Amino acid sequence: MPVFDSNNDSKDDGSAKTKGSYVIDIEGDLAKIHLDLKVTKSGVDGSAHGAVYLIGQLPEGEFITLGPTLSETVGAKFPEGINSESDQTDFRAHAGLFQDPTRLLTWYLGIGSSESHGFPHSIPDLKKAILENVEFVAQIAGIAAGASAEFQGIKFIRTSIR
Is 124 within 8 Å of 72 (Cβ atoms)? Predict the structure, then answer.
């Protein structure tokens, strides 16, 4: 099955590093989406928090979540100094959602990484803090295809497709 779109990136915050990615495969009328997260904590004390989101922008300008949110918290590991946790999920959508710009204008990979847990970790929190925030809507809508910007501690990378 050919890959329709994929993207990966990372975000660092001190001793916390989060890597996130998505892969969208189209098979007939079905889009299969794979979302992946890896959170790494370096050092011998403290914690690292990471989250990955896939969000879409509707033609009317509204932002929606596409699939679940992945999040992990990783504690320091003594004496090794490096510890990491990974998570992944697969979900499906109608292929037309990604193929037809009159249904979904564009989509973004969101990656949060923090030593202090300062960003949304669930879909309701994400909607309240960001997706319904007028400042966010204006800022993220201005990201060019294939480019990225940071908002409230989350790095958003726009698909290079559109």
Answer: no
How would you class 29 by CB atoms within 10 Å of its CB: exposed for 0-12, middle for 13-18, buried for 19 or more? exposed
β-strand 16-27 against 3-13: which pairing, if any?
A: antiparallel
| pLDDT one-digit tens code per residue, 38-53 | 999 999 999 999 999 9
The answer on pLDDT for 162 being more than 80 is yes
Distance CA 70, CA 26 (A): 22
pLDDT at 1 over 70: no
Selected from 2.60.40, 2.115.10, 3.30.1360, 1.10.8, the CATH number assigned to the domain covering 3-158 reads: 2.60.40
Residues forming a β-bridge with 73: 49
Residue 118 has pLDDT above 70, yes or no: no
3-state class percentages of the chain: helix first, strand second, coil last, to nearest 5: 15, 55, 35
- The three-class DSSP label of residue 128 is helix
